[in-house]
Design a protein that fits this description.
Layout lengths: L3 H15 L6 H17 L4 H15 L2 H4 L4 H16 L15 E7 L5 H14 L4 E6 L6 H12 L3 E2 L7 H14 L4 E6 L7 H13 L4 E7 L5 H13 L3 E5 L8 H10 L3 E5 L7 E3 L2 H8 L5 H11 L2 H12 L5 H14 L2 H6 L17 H12 L3 H5 L6 H11 L3 H26 L13
Parallel strand pairs: 1-4, 1-5, 2-3, 2-4, 5-6, 6-7
Antiparallel strand pairs: 7-8
Helix pairs in contact: 1-2, 1-5, 2-3, 3-5, 5-12, 6-7, 8-9, 10-11, 13-15, 17-19, 19-20
């Protein structure tokens, strides 16, 4: 995950600061030296680091910290505020057209993920109640048009294409006219990837802008490329006047320096971040939430938003009733597992819980998607009665379930044992809620 190493380093620094009753200027100086090294190792721009440390240090040796009852906490608060400021303070919004469809042109280097990001953005805006159309303006990359059409079909979003024999300028103009006719309010132009030194292809982008003036020109960049993100942003911006950046692969093993550098160096805000390969893995970029994640404070707002989007409230209320009555079945377990999967990778969800990284075992927890698939296969290989009453599953039934699910008898036994233990725990919780402990009962997360 992005920022993991940086987050660990910073948390260790601040843990030592918080352990001190009072701070001296020397304590702050030593802490800032470590913070500086951590940021540089995370591939943050050198000038950005230098300015950041100067501001944080100046604020940290002021009276608001030195005379505070909790000086270590005050330093963390200052770092949080300055990280947020560094990344833009407030989340950047999409610029909308005064009339007609809002045009968003996606640009970037070859292989940065423009086509996938275009589809992800269209899905995100559709979820917000907008009516998007995708335009296949990449006529150079083999199968680019087909890829966009497949993604559009999956998401039930119209894709405008004139094939690869028509110029991208004519495609953009045709797409705009089609979006107007169909009363669609968003047009996303998926343009071809290009080297920023390629004058011919950059001129093509100029021509598209002249023919169909975009309200947004978003540069799609791979976060894994580190400081190159800043250089690419500066070069594209000099030619096209970018309105924002989309950082892809933020779920990968990236040091995260691009996210901390690009706004400070180029003045262009990060508007969206790609957090995975699936079409729902695009998030608006919130500087304050990202700062909280970096400092190990979690990101409960994003977690709650994901839950509200993915969890069926009616089913959650029914589940609460079943838990209280200790009537939880394997069907219910399967349904809960599916809803959790819809929220995204479990390791990302854990990273949004404040303090989760400090809990022994959780930090190094590896979530194996294959194990979840095996569990699902085992449950689906059971009869309806077996899922309702696992106690009837004897030796011969277990062998049949293992064979039907392509797993081993050991796998089946382990699942049934874990489920039995879970039921016992739920029964105990139910009895506690009926007694004097927690008279209001208990609720599922996010209820």
């Amino acid at each position: 995950m992005a920022f993991e190493s940086l987050s660990d380093r910073l948390q260790n620094v601040f843990k030592r600061l918080r352990s001190k009753g009072k701070l001296t200027e020397q304590d702050v100086t030593e802490a800032m030296r470590e913070v500086r090294m951590a940021l540089l190792e995370a591939d943050v721009n050198y000038k950005v680091v230098k300015d950041f440390i100067a501001v944080v240090k100046e604020r940290s040796i002021g009276s608001e910290v030195m005379e505070s009852l909790t000086p270590g906490q005050q330093v963390v608060k200052i770092v949080n505020e300055e990280l947020t400021r560094l990344m833009g303070n407030n989340p950047a919004q999409i610029n909308n057209a005064g009339r007609g469809p809002t045009v968003i042109m996606m640009v970037g280097l070859q292989g940065s993920g423009k086509t996938t990001s275009s589809a992800k953005l269209a899905r995100h805006l559709k979820k917000q109640g907008r009516r998007p159309m995708l335009a296949a303006c990449d006529i150079y990359r083999p199968a680019a048009i087909k890829q966009l059409e497949v993604l559009g079909q999956q998401l039930d979003i119209p894709v405008f294409s004139l094939g690869d024999k028509v110029s991208p300028v004519e495609i953009a103009k045709g797409a705009y006219a089609a979006a107007e006719r169909q009363a669609l309010d968003i047009l996303i132009l998926d343009t071809a990837g290009r080297l920023h030194v390629d004058d011919a292809l950059m001129a093509e982008l100029d021509a598209i802008c002249a023919a169909v003036p975009p309200q947004e020109i978003l540069l799609v960049v791979d976060a894994m490329t580190g400081q190159d993100v800043v250089k690419v942003t500066e070069t594209f911006n000099a030619r096209l006047a970018l309105t924002g950046v989309v950082l892809t692969k933020m779920d990968g093993d990236t040091r995260g320096g691009a996210a901390l550098s690009v706004k400070a160096v180029t003045g262009k805000p990060i508007k969206y971040v790609g957090m995975g390969e699936k079409t729902d893995a695009l998030e608006p970029f919130y500087p304050d939430r990202m700062a909280s994640r970096i400092l190990g404070m979690g990101d409960m707002l994003t977690l709650i938003e994901k839950a509200q989007e993915s969890v069926d409230l009616k089913k959650a209320q029914e589940m609460e009733t079943k838990l209280r009555k200790a009537e939880f079945t394997l069907d219910d377990f399967l349904d809960q597992m599916q809803q959790m999967k819809n929220m995204g990778p479990l390791d990302q969800l854990l990273g949004m819980i404040p303090g989760a990284g400090k809990i022994k075992g959780l930090k190094d927890l590896q979530i194996d998607e294959k194990d979840m698939a095996h569990t699902e296969a085992i449950i689906r290989s059971m009869t309806a009665e077996e899922r309702r009453k696992p106690m009837i599953i004897n030796g011969s039934r277990r062998k049949r379930i293992a064979a039907g699910s392509g797993t081993t008898l050991t796998d089946v036994n382990r699942l049934l044992k874990q489920f039995e233990q879970g039921q016992k725990m739920m029964k105990q919780m139910s009895q506690m809620s009926k007694g004097g402990h927690g008279k209001k009962g208990f609720k599922l997360p996010f209820m």
